[in-house]
Amino acid sequence: MSEHIFRRWQRALVIVSAAFALLGVLTALWPFGPLFALRNAAIAETFFGGVWSPAGEAYHRFASGPLGGTMAGYFVLQTVIAAIPFGRRERWAWHAILWGMVTWFAIDSAVSLAHGAAFNVWMVNLPAMLVVGVILYATHRALR
Fold this sequence. Notes:
The chain is an all-alpha fold. It has one domain. Helices cover 82% and strands 0% of the residues. The protein has helices spanning 3-29, 37-47, 54-83, 91-114, 118-143. Helix 1 (3-29) runs antiparallel to helix 3 and helix 4 runs antiparallel to helix 5. The radius of gyration is 17 Å and the shape is elongated. It starts with a helix and ends with a helix. The model has no long low-confidence stretch (mean pLDDT 97).
């Protein structure tokens, strides 16, 4: 893989990772913002009979804080890994991103499906895994 093409993929990974970190911040601070309307409707339908109760809304606001903070922290770390060691083509960086994503995807998807929340898999997990997965696939020969 040429250096120019690798740099494009690396920049894409940095941008995607930083965007997901920002999404984590928004999840924590603005869980009922318009960006989350479709997901919130699916949560309400799956767990609250289609209508947010005051207790359900309060719990969602609370739970979105640790969830968003965890997302932000993970993706800030991934952004730094993508920017520095991945950019140096250090093999461990590719593996760290791959196995971090695979671990999250497997656990989050299994728990989501076990609780009847398939919407979380197709709205959140698959898009994130596909975007990062395409970049990792495109760069696998350059770093593995």
